[in-house]
Amino acid sequence: MNKILSQRHYLRPLAIAIAWSVASARAEVQLPKVFGSHMVLQRDMPIPVWGWASPGETVRVRLGQLPELTTTADPQGAWRVNLAPQPAGGPWTLVVAGSNQVVFEDVWIGEVWLCSGQSNMEWPVRGADRAEEEIAAAHWPQIRHLRVQRATSALPRRDFEAEWAVCSPETVGDFTAVGYFFAREIYKALKVPIGLLHSSWGGTRIEPWTPPEAFGEVPALQWIRQKIELADPRSDLRQARLCEYLNRLDTWMQKARVACERRELIEPAPAWPNELTALTGTQDPSALWNAMVHPMVPYALRGALWYQGEANHGEGMVYVAKMHALIQGWRTRWGMPNMPFFYVMIAPFQYGTEDPEILPRFWEAQVAALKIPHTGMAVIHDVADLHDIHPRNKQEVGRRLALLALADVYKHPVVARGPLAREMVVEQDRIRVRFDHADGGLKTRDGQPPSHFELCGNGTTGYVPAQAVIEGDSVIVSSPACPQPTGVRFAWHKLAIPNLVNGAGLPAAPFRLGDCPPWDSILAQIPEVTQYQLVYDLNLARLGPEVIYDEDRTASVTGRFDRVAYLLELQKGAQTTTYVYVSMDAFTDDPRKLGIPVYGSGIRWQRPVHNLWVASNVGNLPTGSIPVGFIEFWPNNYTPVNAAQVPSASNEVYDFGDQPVDPENGYGCMQIHVPAQRTTLWAINHWSAGGAADIGIGNSTGATRDWTFTGSASQYSYKRLRVFVRPVRR
């Protein structure tokens, strides 16, 4: 292969050793393992080089024939220099000298990209389509790959285990397939060396990859930041909580010694607060950032590729907040506010018996994340394997990510994005959907009419299949079953592989636009509700740390009310909608204290409620008049301890007598019970988890009775909560 720079830049280590005197023996100069022979350094940017030595030691750094830079290790032994920006080329030799000398050979300068995520990013070339053919043809020595070894850490590490490899038929089989096929496309277009920093781990969520302070920058994720602080021995919050626990333990010890001497009974010792336990699990917030990404900061790079989401796919719009935290966190740590960040829309997949709409709601969140500046998304419905969560056509995934980089970063005149719905317009008995990125005109991949369009409207009880016709950059959608359409959606099923593409063959992203009229067949079965007025209406698919009601009519509740009612409706797929309606004597005169008890709402109830009336189509649920019930509404974490001494409640099982504990901005509980029958009427817990919240009617099964820790929200295709009050008639 032709060298981009002349051979004179390639200095032999022996010549350098002769030119530089060896310093007296002290602690050895070290560099993190992100540096190594065969590495690629980022072109046209300052090149940070850093490491450790003895405090006060002089460290000298030279790249090829560039001027030598000298620095001094600080009192902790850390040192850093910034080499001047360089054009693409090589090979170079990087030499770092102090009391010892570190030499890295075959160093090239080109384009560096960070590749991260879960198993679809981790997936190797040897597992991709046509693997034998691809491996045999992998003669691309200017593509280099650094694989970070798996590790977790509760605190930031300064280094990891990793080694650079030169692309060849002998090595490429272990490269990230998506990253490799991306790099190959970029190399063909730019003819410069490409370096891949590969740090991924199958099955992991987005939270472990996110810097800890980034959660604090997103209001909806403050609770995660607090969770990290409680587990961080350097934080004031943890110090205060730990001291509080130790004081309680000391008090218990004193009592225990007295009881021991007197041979008396004593209660068990205070339990260790689990919130103070170090976060070292693979799914714990920041645990992978600390161990597998932090050690490479501030290695100069161009941008990041992200292929993750399967582990978070039940969260819906909450994922947008987490993407904000991840992206802004990385950008802040690298000091690159406009760092390009390109990601992959996860492919259609069966996901067991889950609600068919759970994945479209996640796709909707991935599309919404495009509002974050300098991002792009590769849509890959057409390369999916519905029976394999790891589509093997990684070549096309890498190519589509490369198109985004070529268009946005390298300013090549390529079409990089598929059609994205911009707006809908109702035209009598049809809806026109206009698209952005309809480059070359809309068409279908198979020459058939556009598939997977649905309409809803006046007279329908949900969405109905619809016909679609292409007109320029628009699609006209209609259906005889929906003569008065008000809403449209596309590819709204977890197994949808639609055929709509643009002139470049790039597929359209799923979407939904407009609204569907409310369907109130449930209310028709509850005559007493005609005496009530609506206070809140909430589509529970939109749950999150910041609950935004579809309707909030608290301002219209101007007089007194004597009764309160809740209606929870749940539906799995196409099954019959289940519901529970429960009314009771008013336990507050403030309608603002009746909704989801999110942090900051001031809603906190743990008390009996009286004169319940219950209607439901769920078997084994007590219905009719019930003298006494019990409510538990709070934003806190909680334990199963029956501190309120609710009759018949357990101290070991989460049920109707739990104890709220710190932090206040915690897991969250909203439950209505009938203690006399040991029954939970309904529960909505952990709403900050969005699609992974706990929602249910009746008693849950397993280790809890009140749906705590069930993550059950994902199984429902329809979930809705309405809150009513009965005005006092004058």
Outline of this structure?
With 730 residues, the chain is α+β, with helices and mostly antiparallel strands. The chain is built from eleven helices and 35 strands.
Number of domains: 4
User: The CATH topology of the largest domain is what?
Assistant: Rossmann fold
Main beta-sheet annotation = 11 strands, mixed
Assign an overall shape: flat
The tally of beta strands, per DSSP, is: 35
CATH superfamily of the largest domain: SGNH hydrolase
- Cα(first) to Cα(last) distance is 92 Å
**Residue windows where pLDDT falls under 50 for at least 5 positions:** 1-25
Mean pLDDT: 92
The CATH class of the largest domain, by name, is Alpha Beta
The CATH level-2 architecture of the largest domain is identified as 3-Layer(aba) Sandwich
Structure class = alpha+beta
Rg, nearest Å: 30 Å
Helix content: 10-25%
Q: Give the helix tally.
A: 11
Percent of residues in beta strands: 25-35%
